[in-house]
Structures are given as C-alpha cells and as structure tokens.
Write the structure tokens for this entry.
Amino acid sequence: MLILTRKIGESIIVGENIRVVVLEVRGRQIRLGIEAPADIVVLREEIFNRLINENLEAAKFNPEDVEPAGKVLEDTVARRSALRPTRPGSPCVSVESKILGRLQVPENQIVSFVSGLPGFPDYQRYALLPDLPRSLFSYLQCLEDPSLAFIVTDPNTLVPDYRLKNCSNAMKELRAESPEDLQVLVTLTIPPGRPREMTANMMSPLLVNPDQGLGKQVVIEKPQYSHQHPVLAARPGGDDFLPREAWTAG
C-alpha cells in the first residue's frame, strides 16, 4: 500500500486522468474531491460492496420461482411497461441460456455494458428478453456465460414516481441525447423458494439505450431508494400464490 501525506488543497494523481484533492479535514473526517472521466465509476467502498453483493444475490434465482412471483406482482400493480418492439428483419444471433434454452435473439435486443456489472466485470454482452408477452418481468441473459441471468423490471411498476436526476454523465456514456432515450430497469432478487420475499434494487438501476445497444448500472444515493425494496410489502390482502393449475401463459 502506498501511503502519502497531503495538506488541504493538495492532490494526488491516479493513472493519467484521475485527480483526488483534499478539500477539508474536520476531526476524524476528511472531505475529498475526485475528478475522473465519466466512464470511471467512483463510489464509496461500502456502497460498491453492497452493489456487488446485491448483483450476486440477484443472479441466484430459481426459474420455478419466477412465474408465481410475476403473477402476484401483476395482481399488485396497475402500471405496465414493455420492452421496445423488435425491428422487422433485425438479424438474429443464437444464444444458449441455461434457464431459457436455445434462443434466436434479434441483435437490437443485445445490450453491451462496457464496464461490466459490479460483481461480474468480465462479462459485457447481455440479451434483454421479455419473460412473456404481457409479463412485468424481463430476463437480462448474459451471452458470455449461459448460466448468468437476472430478472429485471421497470421501477415505475413498483414506485410510480421513480425518477432519475443528474444522469448527464451516464447519458453521455450511453450516447443518449435526452433521458427519454433511456430505458430504466431494476434487478429483482428472489430468494430461492420464497418468491413472496423478493426485493428490487431501486438504488442501483440499469440504464439502457436501446438504439445504441449500450447499458450501464448506476447508483442513486437517496434515502427513499433502497437496494432491497420489498416488492410485495404493500400487497392488499391475501398471502398465497395462485396454484400452478391457475397460471396462464398469456
């Protein structure tokens, strides 16, 4: 570990384009200013570790829990959103998914997370696939690891006034001209065998520019957004899922 001594106003340079400045020393706390390119993620260590752990947990869902969880969620919320439709004649690529099997995915449903996702930095390419035509869930299937997938949904189905602010750096990185160009998704964590206890990571949404095929996971450090938002906590009445015989495919 490199140990340096700095005074207020002095800085250190990391690499060629990251500058860390000591702004203030107050008791046992130090305020730092960090100048870095937009594509460099700068987070407090505890937030970064929390994001990694939440992504790791979100990737552990059991496929048999997805449909009952989705059915209860559909009975709870009023708003629905869908992925952008596939362009006619869009070329397809073959995808092997451990959960969904062999798929032919239109290229305009493939998203590149250039920096990877926290916890999975070595994988950049994912397919964004609807679960069912009218489902609130979609799959984010990794193309480089067939065993890696996430369940995602539109956060506005859970929190109607969910809003992003100060996302100009992310817009630039995703080549978006306005916030309306971006699709916002959040990952769901479904504890194995306990789908009623699923949570949504409202603190770290996924921003996707479908037209550019680019995506990025960001962090919103606001007290009203939790990394473990209880999805079904507000469901009025009843605790049981519908029996499997009552599920429908459409």
Q: What stands out?
A: The longest strand covers residues 18-26. The chain has two domains: 1-36, 45-246. The two ends are 57 Å apart (CA to CA). The chain is about 15% helix and 30% strand.
